[in-house]
């Protein structure tokens, strides 16, 4: 169900003057990409609470485009994002994927092979590609070539340039109050107040808090911490050509990055919204799972950090109008799939605003409609 077409960039005669057409809260990949699409429809102001764009989850991403990864709505959006990714020079670079498992993990290994469309590979051949695999532990291996590194900074800047064509980015501007007004919304921050006709909630882990601030019922968003560590290249190997490595059930992963490896325990621990940091014990447990499968011990960390991947109860995002407030638009709940789905997700939101038929199929549009939570609860969203 659409938002109804957005027909005018100018105030209607019966409505008060507005500072812009579209207010966007959140400067991660979700907010920046949506704001860029909206700039073709009207004037935009984007607020980011932190001093720079992509400060939280977007700045701490593993930065992988793997379109088969995620629940069906995410897969559909990720697949639909491929053409734009491939049209931007230098945005994607081949990485590939490798799944490795012990003999006692065969059941989980087989499930992942089917779910993520891997091709089984003899362990001897896997060790040619990744020489540090432990032959005494790795009993099963499989590979896939549908995985690419994303130059996340390039993508953020691509959308930021489009946004600036008809809008502005205000960083270090935490919105402290939101009020519905005739014909739009008023947002208050330390620098003053701004008004806009539509309000877009792309606040990541803080999206439900923004909804409460606006007097809109939250959807039940749950931020989940994921810890990461950067370690030196094992054994001094050149890791640049290695695939991204996964344990079965994604209980750890390791990804080459700038001559080193990023290793994660791939945990999902519920958290309140905050500037996340790595849990040392959880990180140590994940590093131990990785270390078991290789011949080179982890002797030191170059760095560690964490991010919050935020999920709605059905793990699909919310993209579209709030069922009770048509001028309040959700762009939230992307989980760990924000970068790989951003081009199509932002285009879907813009299509709904403009009253255009979305490029993605109707089933996907319905699956990400925020109204699905009201429908499931007989008209009441989560409080």
Give a summary of the structure in a few sentences:
This protein is of the alpha+beta class.
Question: Your description of this structure?
Answer:
- The structure is a single chain.
- Strand 11 and strand 12 form a beta hairpin.
- The longest helix has 17 residues, at 338-354.
- The chain has helices at 29-38, 72-87, 106-115, 123-129, 152-164, 207-213, 280-292, 338-354, 362-368, 371-376; strands at residues 20-25, 44-48, 64-65, 92-94, 97-101, 119-120, 140-144, 148-150, 167-171, 177-181, 184-189, 192-201, 222-232, 244-246, 253-257, 260-264, 269-270, 303-311, 318-322, 325-332.
- It has two domains: 20-59 and 152-220 and 314-376, FAD/NAD(P)-binding domain (3-Layer(bba) Sandwich); 97-144 and 222-311, 2-Layer Sandwich (D-Amino Acid Oxidase, Chain A, domain 2), CATH 3.30.9.10.
- It is 28% helix and 27% strand.
- By secondary structure, it is α+β, with helices and mostly antiparallel strands.
- It has ten helices and 20 strands.
- The model is unreliable at 1-15 and 377-383 (pLDDT under 50).
- Strands 5, 6, 7, 13, 14, 15, 16, 17 and 18 form a nine-stranded mixed beta sheet that branches. Strands 1, 2, 9, 10, 11, 12, 19 and 20 form an eight-stranded mixed beta sheet that branches.
Topology:
Blueprint: E1 20-25, H1 29-38, E2 44-48, E3 64-65, H2 72-87, E4 92-94, E5 97-101, H3 106-115, E6 119-120, H4 123-129, E7 140-144, E8 148-150, H5 152-164, E9 167-171, E10 177-181, E11 184-189, E12 192-201, H6 207-213, E13 222-232, E14 244-246, E15 253-257, E16 260-264, E17 269-270, H7 280-292, E18 303-311, E19 318-322, E20 325-332, H8 338-354, H9 362-368, H10 371-376
Parallel strand pairs: 1-2, 1-12, 2-9, 5-14, 12-20
Antiparallel strand pairs: 3-8, 4-8, 5-7, 6-7, 10-11, 11-12, 13-16, 13-17, 13-18, 14-15, 15-16, 19-20
